[in-house]
Design brief:
Number of strands: 3
Mean pLDDT: 88
Strand order of the largest sheet: 1-2-3
Structural class: mainly alpha
Number of domains: 1
Distance between the termini: 15 Å
Shape: globular
Number of helices: 20
């Protein structure tokens, strides 16, 4: 049941308008950041206002303008989109508080640009979440790439500029070179770019063409970090901790996997994928290779942010592999893993930034014993690690439970062992860090003696997101209700 209303449009527009106001108020920091909190509050209020309707089976739609025959700049809110948007907007708040604690004391002259670009990025992420068709999603996807470039290059040193250049080249070349041609082919073949439950292709379309298009979309949306188009992600780790959290948890990479999630379910159709194991095999093999390889590389890293970057690459592949299974449990697990990983990984990146501010440690080998000096930070790191590993009582356990069941329910049952092996590797590179911090003897006396908890404006957001790792476990049933609404539209009785 569809209902036309402008609320989705206003939710997107609010943070874009906030970006303009932030730029105007650059000389009054308190007002500038107050605008962010007001915008986030308004967005959350409007998102919550749509929740009861979505849970009742409504699809909220709005067309801004018609651009092509049968294709407009159109929005549609379903359970999965609303859940993704809610997570993105909610996490915007603690990241902003953390940013104030990190950037204010440094008298960073680029703070206004930072907050303005961050606001546009949140608008773009919500735009992707609410996209009713491929064209709308592509436009917001590209806006996100452009708005986050100044964030990646925020420090303006050679390393940041190099990382930013790689970031932009990878994302624009793949989207324009692969995703855009694939989108044109879809439109030429079907006359539609709409996301619909049955998919847009008819039975006469060859599986060869569909396989080709699937690969083009998988690599065209390079924000998803699939190998070999992943190098931009470790390269972007030179950005400040709030930017890393945006890239890895709040918006960028999540937009990549959500875009693939949308295309797989709404363009190709769950039924078509489930009935043709050769199609799902393509997705599962690519995601499975990335998942294991990234986990093994993470295991070898000493640089903490590099480890987290490769961990992100692996965790994104959980989502792609889940939707590639084309089973209801697999798709549910993929949808749930987006918020579960988001809250866990944002905690870890905020902790990484706090550790550096607390004692200057960039490398894991420097962290021996620091947990005794910064117990709040390292406790938050521990909870974030448990969430990414997938251990109870954190949310990651719930999404991985569905993914494991989804593998057993699918034609790609070998994926069950891929998930298990990867989770063991997750534990192998995260838990030793926690052990080092709390139980090992100090290896670097200078760093150990220097260590102390950073500003409370940095600590409190970490504790909030760490608590979120636990809350999403206990409220997972509520989250699943939104996923179930999505499944009713895209994966049942089509």
């Amino acid at each position: 049941m569809e209902e036309a209303q402008a609320t989705p449009f206003w939710i997107i527009l609010i943070s874009s308008m906030a970006a303009v106001l932030i730029s105007i108020c650059k000389r009054t920091p308190n007002l500038r950041e107050g605008i962010i909190f007001l915008a986030a509050t308004l967005k959350l209020f409007l998102l919550i206002s749509m929740a009861p309707g979505v849970l009742d089976g409504k699809l909220y739609t709005f067309t801004v303008i018609n651009l092509l025959p049968n294709v407009g700049l159109s929005l549609k809110v379903d359970g999965a989109g609303l859940l993704f948007a809610f997570v993105s907007v909610t996490l915007w708040i603690p990241v902003t508080i953390y940013s104030i604690g990190l950037l204010r004391p440094k008298s960073d002259l680029s703070q206004t640009r930072f907050y303005a670009c961050f606001s546009i990025a949140i608008s773009s992420a919500v735009g992707v979440a609410f996209s009713a068709n491929l064209l709308t999603m592509f436009i917001f996807y590209e806006i996100l790439s452009l708005s986050t470039y100044p964030l990646v290059t925020h420090n303006q040193d050679n390393e940041a500029i190099k990382g930013g250049r790689k970031y932009l080249i990878y994302l624009l070349s793949t989207s324009i070179g692969l995703a855009l041609p694939a989108m044109i082919i879809v439109y030429q073949q079907t006359g539609s770019l709409d996301f619909i439950g049955s998919g847009v292709f008819n039975d006469k379309t060859s599986n060869t063409l569909i396989s080709l298009l699937i690969v083009m979309f998988l690599y065209g949306f390079a924000k998803a970090g699939l190998m070999p188009f992943h190098a931009w992600l470790p390269g972007a780790m030179v950005a400040p901790a709030p930017v890393s959290s945006l890239l890895h948890a709040v918006a960028v990479v999540k937009v990549g996997v959500f875009s693939i999630f949308r295309v797989m379910t709404g363009i190709f159709g769950v039924d078509r994928l489930a009935s043709a194991p050769s199609l799902t095999m393509v997705v599962c093999i690519i995601a499975g290779i990335t998942l294991i390889t990234a986990s093994l590389i993470a295991l070898s890293q000493d640089n903490l942010k590099a480890l987290l970057a490769y961990s992100t690459i692996g965790q994104l592949s959980y989502i792609i592999l889940g939707v590639g299974l084309a089973s209801e449990s697999g798709i549910a697990g993929a949808a749930l893993h987006i918020p579960m990983h988001a809250v866990g990984k944002i905690t870890l990146f905020l902790c990484a930034g706090a550790i550096y501010e607390a004692c200057g440690a960039k490398y894991i080998s420097q962290m021996n014993g620091i947990g005794r000096k910064i117990p709040l930070t390292m406790t938050a790191f521990f909870l974030g690690s448990l969430c990414v590993i997938g251990l109870p009582p954190t949310g990651g356990f719930i999404s991985k439970w569905y993914l494991l069941n989804g593998a057993l329910d699918s034609s790609q049952q070998w994926a069950f062992f891929i998930f298990l092996i990867s989770s063991l590797l997750n534990a192998a590179y995260f838990l030793p860090i926690v052990y080092r911090a709390f139980f090992a003897l100090p290896s670097d006396e200078v760093i150990y003696n220097k260590a102390s908890e950073p500003s409370m404006l940095m600590v409190i957001p970490m504790l909030i997101t760490a608590a979120g790792c636990l809350l999403v476990f206990f409220f997972s049933n509520t989250m699943y209700q939104f996923v179930e609404q999505f499944l009713n539209v895209y994966a049942k009785n089509n």
